[in-house]
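Retinoid isomerohydrolase
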Amino acid sequence: MVSRFEHPAGSYKKIFETCEELAEPVPATVTGRIPPFLKGSLLRLGPGLFEVGDEPFYHLFDGQALMHKFDFKNGQVTYYRKFIKTDAYVRAITENRVVITEFGTFAYPDPCKNIFSRFFSYFKGVEVTDNCLVNVYPIGEDYYAVTETNYITKVNTDTLETLKKVDMCNYVNINGVTAHPHIEKDGTVYNIGNCMGKGASLAYNIVRTPPTQKDKSDPIEKSKVVVQFPSAERFKPSYVHSFGMSENYFVFVETPVKINLLKFLSAWSIRGSNYMDCFESNENQGTLFHIAKKNPGEYIDLKFKGAAIGMFHHINTFEDQGFIVFDLCSWKGFEFVYNYLWLANLRANWEEVKKAAMMAPQPEVRRYVIPLDVHKEEQGKNLVSLPYTTATATMHSDGTIWLEPEVLFSGPRQAFEFPQINYKKFSGKNYTYAYGLGLNHFIPDRICKLNVKTKETWVWQEPDSYPSEPLFVQTPDGVDEDDGVILTIVAAPGSQRPAYLLILNAKDLSEVARAEVECSIPVTFHGMYKH
């Protein structure tokens, strides 16, 4: 699953360049045959505007949200894209400058205001960004484009029109929610975010939003906190990007990457700071693993601990014979991986890109196992008795249970990231296959498939081609877990047609079809296939 290519020509720089939205859908040129069961849309989100006027955005997660759509109809494919008309975007375009501070870009105060009005605007507090460039998912009958703040943006997935900005703080005690909810078959949505807990200390809340209501009212208004996880540090919650959910349990991984809230609250008004300035690593904490019962929600007060990792994406979580098994895309050590995702780093020449990645945390796909039945007297003994894994859990004398993972995949500076599974049928269940985007020194250059049981791997890769997160779509009458196709958007900057939608057979990652477009497509993060 290691990359076969170097990228000395540096054509990957093109995926971090501004593009224009489209006035109407454009036809794509199809080679191969589009599977007839593909009748819906592939929706993707990512940054599309990397500077405003002469002011650049600095970080990968700062560019303004652009929504992409590939529509399938009668074996034909069209491509469409629109900027989401967030407050951040509309105000930036109107004033031709960065108005709202983004993840790694500080918005300077309005140069037209005098010192008094500037002084008073400090007391209005921070304007948090609504730049929803990360993902899109359904809540009830509606679709929302999201980032990781308290704002989510309702969109029309047919016309790509922006409908409304929703503040989750109006409904639940949460400071923000992740872009990685879990969605059950009936449409129930679970998400996590940090919040003010008891006694003015920080905590993490899991929020449940019910499916479509009979009376057609908005399910978001019925959102409730199901369970609360404690924070290891009172004023410094860990950065949380996703969480695990099995049939009956939640898994929350509390990493050493912390948000210094005091810095966060003071820094903004004082000097030109952004979100990135407020992260720090606790070099002594290691990683804490928490579990809670799902229904009814109940925190299980056991102390599971492991070596320090950074972690963004859970792959899957399931229960087996009294154990919770969860697979993660991890990054070894306590340093924040986002430190390596400044656009200047990603747009550097290949040798520079490689040099920077040499210093970064190393990626590894890991399986951890948590025993649900823990006896204090079994000190020093491995509590994991599942026959198929080498992951261990060992009780220490202080009552903590130390977790050692099984490594499912590891390659130097070769990450298996943006993981996807056959979510419809195998989310929360014992599964076999994970699909991922292969990062080569942080540059996405291949699609990978991993058998988590045998560690067998498959790769799709072409020179100077930069794919995105692979989404799995099941064949309607499919029997096997991997009966289906993989959808990914590939940027091929050197080619006649600079981008295409690629359809692969999920069994062996062989090409089924591609649909090429005349315009280039920048990097996208996450998305969904809408039937």
